[in-house]
């Protein structure tokens, strides 16, 4: 019977290194291959190229505004999902807070949980406002005189507070399931 080595996956590691070296030799850019292999997510900034032509610059401005609008829309969707997650988390914290009744430190624990919940909500609100302000500032900056009509875009979003109908938790989760996955 042949003795097999127990433990270690050196053969698998050698295969991975061989694959990486083959990719590096074909692509020529080793750092790109390493970044792709590691799975580093890199966010690239929007770069606007200046051009001499008037028509070309107009097209670029429209393209840049469209990119910023898409980015803003994605951000709003992401923020809605984050708000839903925080709401669920704070709901759990609130129930925990309500259950704390007995004990010598019960009053202090309830206060601390309340402070923590308020702090989480405040931090998220500030973060969302700053992220949105950055994008809207970029839109205004790149919009020129014609600008980006924020009022028109705000009209496209319906105001939930005006609706009289209430949704239960299951309906809300079904509505926003595509945002949280």
Automatic annotation (TrEMBL):
Region (Disordered), start-end ranges: 1-26, 143-164
Q: Out of the domains of life, which is the source?
A: Eukaryota
Bias (Basic residues) occurs at: 1-22
Taking the record's annotation, the residue ranges forming a coiled coil are: 106-138
Q: Where is the composition biased (Acidic residues)?
A: 155-164
Which keywords are on file for this protein? Coiled coil
Q: What is this protein called?
A: Uncharacterized protein
The species this protein was found in: Trypanosoma rangeli
Q: What is the lineage of its organism?
A: Eukaryota, Discoba, Euglenozoa, Kinetoplastea, Metakinetoplastina
